[in-house]
Specification:
heterotrimer, A mainly alpha (63), B mainly alpha (532), C alpha+beta (364), A: 63 residues, mainly alpha, 0% strand, elongated, B: 532 residues, 16 helices, disordered N terminus
């Protein structure tokens, strides 16, 4: 569970484009590659949904 | 750059018992050596760069003045199409694969690529792909004339017969790219020297690893779309034919689903190269290595969800329009701020300005300009005024020429002494740089102006108010084009003779590749180096 | 005149109208000005970011160079700084998205139009159909081939002039329904900030409310084949009364041309008229001399069709040939023009079949 949480946090900071060395080393030492891939894809989908939701909200609020 | 701050006990080459390169033509035909194949990729891409460049000069010569002077419009369209295809698939991509072939094994301490025979095959099918493509120019009806984006139905129902050869050529290039990508991934994941953990990988290796995944993901999409075209043309399907119930816009969606990640395929390895060169000549470690790696990975994923910003004028529903505008603006940020990392690397460094550094600095400045115009293009309502004008031409040439091409030039100058064993002729290198720099800006900067003033792209003749800037651009193009002869002469001279280069070559260079002798022997790291 | 002389001559006559416009046109509609403002806003944002970024860069290039004795420092990470310089552009861009979205929503509101015009792209001309009036015409490039080929001095509207412009009323909401007959085109008038792709099988919508009468010019902006650079758009915006008069004129002219079609013409007149029609409608592909382009466009001279039975010849001109660039000209040309061009093709361009066809026969 904790591993998941950390992978998700790392993915989030990756999407911002910022990560510290310390965290990276932790990720690469005890992180699992598939977990990161899954987190990356999940986050991309979340990003899609978030932007889509935002667009719907904006268009709805204009009407 | 990773923490590979190695001053290895010099890797003494006990490779003398190995066989050297074979003699004659056979060496090149049958070689499985990553250095030979890397050289062939680079030479091939240089040839393609010159051919594609000559086509660009035909275009610029015709556009020097209003009116039709040199070529007729049908041939002009073939030139714009072939120029784009050759530069993208023949010059930029093979150059990056060539650099990967040479440098990835050297940078991770591997003796060769993981799949050497496939490596040979993925190179040797390329020249045939381009021979097929180029031969279509001489066929009745001429070669591809529908732009490098080959929108249907211009490229299907209304295409010249030679389009089938074009499709075949694209398939072969795609196969070559996919094999190259598989090879690079296999090498990076399996062949690293002991101690070369993933988090010590040089950024060039990191960016290439991610690029290779992108390639594997999108080249099949390209293959799919050209196959659908083939079916439409020869087998009576109607994927893109509205009269048969198909959808011409579907073509654009599929094409750009490939095309947008393709843009990143052409720029991420450049990010890697620049992230190697700037720390070397600033004598300071790359600022925010971790951020770079993470950002590049997420940029690669996000590059799949912004494709329709190339299609703001096709009449998407409002929701789609707003969605792709937001998504594009959001991913521009993590991409753009990487420039800040390079500048922070230079800040309080100890800089010198050898030729590779000059190209790298020009990359940072001019790529950023291309990024700015990209930001402007992301604003969907404003894009209605920019779309398909010379403003777009200026934008993508700023990211591709002083972006991708300059990074390749920088890489060539940076690693050439390691390849040939000779110190570069700096005077000639700097001459090449300044001529290219002036030429590129003279060519592409005025294109912003004519584009905003209303000149559409891909036209062989134009209204009179665009005349002045167009002749300026043509002069610049010839300066840029001919300055490449200085580069070729310099490289040839460097291969033949020159002062012996040291192993480290550049004072500030770090990384495994600088621990092997210059020139790098035919076989390196047969015994893996040890990295702490 | 030799080609070299023409080239040399064009060097002198060229800069007649060359100017140095470097920015987007502000245009003549509320939307086009909104877009111009958006463009300038994002431009200045880029300038500010650029000045800051390049300022720091050039400062360190001049200050932190080895030749000035600079010694490299060792820091190479600062997550806080990175987060700041990421979040700041983020916020700027989000603030940018607000006005952009508002403009976009406005652009997509095509409801309650006063005039509806269907715009259809053809290789390489535009067709305008006024949906509520019985008006339907094609708009072709009218720049003479001699100007394009540098034989004649170029006029100031070179490549931006048509034989019959689109006419719309001022201060009315005009809705365009944009589609295509063959490949994808794109209809763009910079002064209106309207650019929409014309796609076969689709109808895209766009609208404009022009505030000043005048003549506005644009071009096709999607590569659509050989003559892509030669299908301009000219829009004449007229005051309401003038527009009403123009509509009435169009209807009157329709009656006149119907009358013209029932007359009989001398063969020589048909050939003379046909040459003009040929140069405007056919020469783009089949070339002025009728030789075509081998592999792409067949020759007319000595072709089986132009020297064979006249009905078959007429049929191909009227209905086109499916799967090729040969269009159906039934809608594009009047009966008189069709008769003239067929007669010309059979008795000109090196052919001498000797027969002719009358407009009345074409109409059947």
């Amino acid at each position: 569970m904790k591993l998941w949480l950390r992978a998700l946090l790392s993915t989030m900071s990756a999407f911002l484009g910022v990560q510290s060395n310390e965290r990276r080393e932790r990720d690469f030492i005890d992180g699992k590659f598939p977990v990161f891939v899954a987190a990356g894809i999940t986050f991309t989908l979340l990003f899609l949904l978030a932007v889509y939701g935002l667009v719907q909200f904006v268009l709805w609020s204009v009407d | 750059m990773a923490t590979v701050d190695i001053d290895l006990p010099h890797v003494k080459d006990d490779d003398s018992h190995h066989h050297g390169p074979a003699k004659g033509l056979g060496r090149w035909l049958y070689t499985t050596n990553h250095k030979d194949i890397g050289s062939m990729y680079l030479i091939f891409s240089l040839c393609m760069f010159m051919i594609g460049g000559m086509m660009a000069l035909v275009i610029r010569a015709e556009l020097f003045q209003p009116g039709l002077q040199l070529v007729e419009p049908g041939f002009f369209n073939q030139m714009t199409t072939m120029h784009g295809l050759i530069m993208v698939f023949g010059a930029v991509m093979p150059a990056f694969v060539g650099l990967a072939n040479w440098m990835v094994p050297l940078q991770i301490g591997a003796p060769d690529m993981a799949l050497p025979r496939m490596n040979n095959w993925s190179f040797w099918i390329l020249p045939f792909a381009f021979l097929i493509l180029l031969s279509s120019l001489f066929m009745p009806g001429g070669g591809p004339n529908f732009g490098w984006t080959f929108y249907a139905p211009l490229s299907t129902t209304y295409a010249p017969d030679s389009v089938t050869f074009f499709i075949f050529g694209v398939h072969i290039m795609g196969a070559s790219s996919i094999m190259g990508a598989i090879n690079i991934i296999a090498t990076i994941l399996n062949m690293r020297a002991p101690g070369m953990t993933m988090m010590k990988l040089p950024l060039f290796v990191w960016t290439w690893l991610i690029t290779a995944f992108l390639l594997i993901a999108v080249m099949p999409v390209l293959a799919g779309v050209v196959t659908m075209m083939l079916m439409d043309i020869h087998f009576g399907t109607s994927f893109f034919n509205a009269a048969g119930g198909g959808d011409p816009v579907l073509f654009q969606h599929i094409f750009w689903f490939f095309g947008h990640p393709e843009v990143y395929i052409m720029i991420l390895p450049a990010f890697g190269i620049i992230s190697e060169i700037i720390p070397t000549f600033a004598r300071k470690r790359l600022f925010g290595y971790s951020s770079m790696v993470y950002a590049v990975a997420s940029i690669a994923l996000l590059s799949f969800v912004v494709w329709a910003h190339h299609m703001f004028t096709v009449g998407m529903p409002l929701v789609g329009e707003v969605f792709f505008m937001f998504a594009t603006m959001l991913i521009a940020v993590p991409t753009g701020v990487k420039v800040f990392n390079w500048i922070a690397t230079m800040f309080r460094g100890s800089m010198t300005f050898e030729t590779p550094m000059l190209f790298a600095l020009a990359f940072v400045v001019l790529f950023t300009l291309g990024g700015f115009s990209g930001l402007m293009l992301a604003i969907a309502p404003a894009d209605f005024q920019y779309h398909d004008t010379y403003f777009v031409v200026a934008h993508f040439h700023y990211v591709l020429v002083p972006g991708a091409i300059f990074s390749i030039m920088a890489a060539a100058y940076y690693w050439l002494p390691k390849w040939t064993g000779h110190v570069l002729n700096e005077t000639m290198g700097k001459t090449h740089f300044w001529l290219s720099f002036v030429g590129v800006n003279l060519t592409f900067f005025p294109m912003h102006f004519v584009g905003l003033a209303g000149m559409p792209r891909r036209i062989p003749d134009y209204a009179l108010q665009f005349a002045d800037f167009n002749s300026m651009a043509s002069v610049g193009a010839f300066i840029f084009g001919f300055s490449q002869l200085v580069f070729i002469y310099n490289v040839v001279q460097n291969v033949r003779a020159g002062q012996k280069a040291t192993d480290r070559v550049w004072e500030g260079a770090h990384g495994l590749e600088w621990t092997v002798p210059s020139p790098a022997p035919y076989h390196t790291f047969s015994t893996p180096p040890k990295i702490d | 005149m030799t080609k070299a002389m023409v080239l040399a001559l064009s060097l002198f006559v060229l800069p007649a109208k060359a100017d140095w416009q470097v920015n987007m046109t502000q245009g003549v509609t509320e939307l086009s000005r909104e877009i111009f403002d958006l463009h300038m806003l994002i431009f200045w944002i880029c300038v500010v970011i650029g000045v800051a970024v390049f300022g720091v860069m050039f400062y360190s290039i001049f200050k932190h160079r080895k030749s000035k004795g600079a010694v490299a420092e060792h820091w190479h990470e600062n997550t806080t700084v990175e987060v700041i310089w990421t979040v700041v552009p983020f916020v700027i861009l989000i603030s940018m998205a607000v006005p952009a979205t508002a403009t976009l929503i406005n652009m997509y509101d095509t409801s309650e139009a006063d005039v509806d015009i269907q715009v259809t792209g053809y290789q390489w001309k535009w067709r305008y159909q006024y949906l509520n009036e019985d008006i339907d015409f094609f708009s072709n490039l009218s720049t003479p081939r001699d100007e394009i080929n540098n034989v004649q001095v170029k006029n100031s509207n070179y490549l931006l002039e048509v034989d019959k412009p689109l006419v719309i009323p001022v201060n009315k909401k005009v809705r365009f329904l944009i589609t295509s007959n063959d490949v994808i085109h794109s209809w763009w008038v910079p002064n209106f900030a309207v650019k929409k792709d014309a796609i076969p099988g689709f109808v895209n919508e766009s609208w404009v409310r022009v505030e000043e009468p005048g003549i506005y010019r644009g071009q096709c902006t999607e590569l659509c084949g050989k003559e892509h650079g030669f299908m301009p758009i000219v829009v004449e915006v007229k005051a309401e009364a003038d527009y009403a008069r123009w509509v009435a004129d169009q209807k009157a002219m329709k009656l006149i041309s119907a009358g013209a079609a029932s007359q009989n013409y001398a063969v020589a007149d048909l050939i003379a008229k046909g040459e003009g029609v040929y140069n405007a409608a056919c020469a783009g592909c089949h070339q002025v001399n009728g030789q075509g382009m081998p592999g792409a466009f067949p020759a007319i001279t000595a072709s089986a069709i132009a020297t064979g039975p006249i009905q078959k010849h007429l049929d191909i001109v009227l209905n086109g040939k499916a799967g090729t660039a040969m269009q159906a000209f039934k809608q594009q040309l009047s009966a008189v023009d069709l008769a003239a061009v067929v007669t010309f093709q059979r008795n000109g361009l090196g052919n001498s079949v000797g027969d002719s066809i009358q407009p009345s026969a074409v109409q059947q």
